[in-house]
Amino acid sequence: MKDPFFMTRISDLFQHSALREFAATVKNADLRELMAKVKNADPRELADRLKTADPLNISGVLENLAQLRDTRATVAIATIAVLTVSAVGTASAMSTANAAPVTAFKSTDMAQNFETTAKAAKALHMGKTTASYFWDDSSGRAGDTGMPAIGKPMQRGLAASPSWPLGTEGYVTYNGKTVKFFIGDRGPGKPSERGVMLDLDAKTFADLTQGIFDPATLTVKNNGGFGHIDITYKITKWGPGVGKKGAPVPFSTGAWKS
Q1: Are strands 177-186 and 196-201 parallel, antiparallel or unpaired?
Q2: Cβ contacts of 115 within 8 Å, gap of 6 or more
Q3: pLDDT digits 0-9 by tens, 12-47
Q4: Percentage of the chain with pLDDT > 70?
Q5: What is the rounded distance in angstroms from the CA atom of residue 244 to the CA atom of residue 256?
Q6: First to last CA, the chain
Q7: How far apart are CA 179 and CA 134, in angstroms?
Q8: 88-125 pLDDT, tens per residue?
Q9: CA 8 to CA 92: how far, in whole Å?
Q10: Taking the CA atoms of the chain, what radius of gyration do you get in angstroms?
Q11: Distances from the Cα of 27 to the Cαs of 16, 20, 108, in angstroms?
Q12: SS (H, E, C) the chain
């Protein structure tokens, strides 16, 4: 049964920028539809968006729940998200009414800690290249070639290289923003002949270019049309899989299978 007041309130909460992707449809949805939308969302992505305004540091909890996909986890994720947004609004209102600052954990501290960790990590190899993006979810859509070569499901942080060993880990930086990645698939193919030596996952690419990942088309939208970006990278761990360490080389060299 719908409760118009409750659903309107939920809609208002989801107008917050951290949950803007749900705002357009939630107002006329019933609770089951809302739960379905949250269940299909990526908790890590939701956590990333919440970090922009998260006085209760709920984004960390969401990241810990990212591997859970049962009904209870879904409800927990939805509840945490709504409570977080509600808490943000309440804290803001209290701060305005009392003209006093609200003590809170700062998400900027978490970001700074990540940047510090990334910079401190020992570099085994560093360089620059052009990166594209992909999202292979085994659906066969939009050029999807199936399960990533490493045998793990497609996920945030999984990248493809035409030559680096599978399991290789490192960091990518674009326009001052740094993200972590690991090599879990092969590619780009022909583009690597033109210097495109890294395929980032579409969600990470969207974050770096301030775009939005569209799960319906497996593409990145609203990022100014960027399909390729010039990045710097730092390798912090060479993977145990087959491949060639050092500077990346084109797919056609066969280094990925040596």
Answers
A1: unpaired
A2: 178
A3: 444 444 454 444 444 444 555 555 555 555 656 665
A4: 53
A5: 7
A6: 60
A7: 16
A8: 444 444 444 444 444 444 555 556 676 777 778 899 99
A9: 20
A10: 20
A11: 13, 12, 31
A12: CCCHHHHHHHHHHCCCHHHHHHHHHHCCCCHHHHHHHHHCCCHHHHHHHHCCCCCCCHHHHHHHCCCCCCHHHHHHHHHHHHHHHHHHHHHHHHHHHHCCCCCCCCHHHHHHHHHHHHHHCCCCEEEEEEEEEECCCCCCCCCCCCCCCCCCCCCCCEEEECCCCCCCEEEEEECCEEEEEEEEEECCCHHHHHCEEEEEEHHHHHHHHCCEEECCCCEEECCCCCCCEEEEEEEEECCCCCCCCCCCCCHHHCHHHC
Check: pTM over 0.85? Answer yes or no. no
User: What is the amino acid identity at position 213?
Assistant: F
